[in-house]
Amino acid sequence: MCLEIDGCNTIFRKIMQSVYLATIFAGALVCLLSSLLLLVRRKSGERSRLILAIIVFFSVLNYIPRFIALSKGYDPELVVSTKMLLIGNFMVVSYIMYPIEVIRPGWLNFARIVQLYAFWLLLLTFYLITSFAGMRHTSYSSLPELIANVGPFEAWFCMFLCLLLFTPGLLVIFIQRIDHNSNTDRVWLKKYASAFYINILAYLLLLTFNHPLVHTLYYYVSVGCSLYIVYMELFDRLLAKTVEKKTPDEPVLEEASLKPATPFATTIVTSKNAALAERLEAYMRNNSAWRDPDLSLTRLASALYTNRTTLSQTIQECGYESYIHYINRLRIHDFVQQAGSGASSNYQDTFFLVGFRSRNTALRNFKLYTGTTPSDYFQKR
User: Fold this and answer.
1) CA 121 to chain centre
2) HEC string for the chain
3) Contacts of residue 277, Cβ cutoff 8 Å, sequence gap at least 6
4) Global pTM?
5) Which domains does the chain have, with CATH numbers?
6) Which residues fall within 8 angstroms of residue 47, CB to CB, at 6 or more apart?
């Protein structure tokens, strides 16, 4: 009877090992294809897809060594080890980069990325130095085994790394959001945070229970969360929007925005620039930025966390010939509103108020967009 039970257990373990091996292979393949899809559909000026593609590819690099070890019959690295926990913390920090880029497009640069990874790099340096000095970093099969052996310094270090898995995720919830620079909303952020923490909780269960079934289920949950995040990026977060085209010769009587000056001809703002067009409109509307006579394309691109080329392309897709054409229309419209309201009868002061440096430049642009002088224009109105 005991021999039969042992034989059944052996068969079950072999089946689970085969399923586990197939799951790792499928997970690596799915993550690789998802990463390539994000790269193919990356948007100019929007780095979120590129960053997410790199993060998902990190998962592929994490799966491959375990798959090779299992396929050769070797025992893979124990999950509760300093090395594996450092890798886990690296992935957690990496997954924080993506929502930061979504919420604050262009805010991340090399210096800030280094700052984001600074504490992790400090831990990695400590691990390498202590290993080189001869400290033995013991590996454990599960968290209960680690807790039972807490005492040596390396065991406490592993416990500390386990706790750190949850702390970077707080940034997803409490990160400061600036609406006019955001590419998303709170609903998307809650969805991402939910997928993020489900993945971490699944990893905690993996650390707690050292069983092939738990390992297999973890990969399904982890890959599923990654696919859900990829799906949200590709099909949920950004949608193509249409903006109607302005007619350069028509008098500026509409709101100073990217909304239509005429209901006739339309132009499509490509999905890759639709979010930037919305941010531009909100930034100009909220800050009356055209009133700054020193505002330039470079400064405006910096304020919107993008680059000159992408911003210029977005402005042209919205129906304007150039940045100068766009900013002058906003100034002329502001002038019409200010002078038409009777707040000021001095046209020259009003021109300076809305951002023009000289009276001649203002008059030239006013006549270009209205076909007449300010005096004649307001007499006709």
Assistant:
1) 22
2) CHHHHHHHHHHHHHHHHHHHHHHHHHHHHHHHHHHHHHHHCCECCECHHHHHHHHHHHHHHHHHHHHHHHHCCCCCCCCECHHHHHHHHHHHHHHHHHHHHHHCCCCCCHHHHHHHCHHHHHHHHHHHHHHHCCCCCCCECCHHHHHHCCCCHHHHHHHHHHHHCCCCCHHHHHCCCCHHHCCCCHHHHHHHHHHHHHHHHHHHHHHHCCCHHHHHHHHHHHHHHHHHHHHHHHHHCCCCEEEECCCCCCCCCCCCCCCCCCCCCEEEECHHHHHHHHHHHHHHHHHCHHHCCCCCHHHHHHHCCCCHHHHHHHHHHCCCCCHHHHHHHHHHHHHHHHHHCCCCCCHHHHHHHCCCCCHHHHHHHHHHHHCCCHHHHHHHC
3) 241, 243, 258, 269, 314, 317, 318
4) 0.61
5) 2-236 (1.20.1070), 242-380 (1.10.10.60)
6) 101, 105, 106, 108
Compute the distance between CA of residue 158 and CA of residue 172 in angstroms, rounded to an integer.
Answer: 24
DSSP bridge pairs for 43? 46
As a whole number of angstroms, the distance between CA 285 and CA 16 comes to 60
- 379 φ/ψ angles, rounded to the nearest 5 degrees: -65, -40
In this structure, are residues 163 and 203 in contact, taking their beta carbons and an 8 Å threshold?
A: no
Tokens found for residue 109: 């640069």
Strands 266-269 and 241-244: antiparallel
Largest separation between any pair of C-alpha atoms in the chain? 106
Cα(132)–Cα(126) distance, integer angstroms: 10
| pLDDT, one tens digit for every residue, the chain (381 residues) | 554 555 555 666 677 778 888 888 999 999 999 999 998 887 644 678 889 999 999 999 988 888 888 888 777 777 888 999 999 999 988 888 888 887 776 677 888 889 889 999 999 999 999 999 888 888 888 889 988 888 888 889 999 998 888 776 666 555 544 443 444 566 777 888 889 889 989 998 999 988 878 888 999 999 999 999 998 888 776 543 333 334 333 334 343 333 333 322 334 455 557 888 888 888 888 888 898 888 888 888 888 888 888 888 888 888 888 888 899 999 998 888 888 776 666 787 888 888 888 877 888 888 888 888 888 887 776
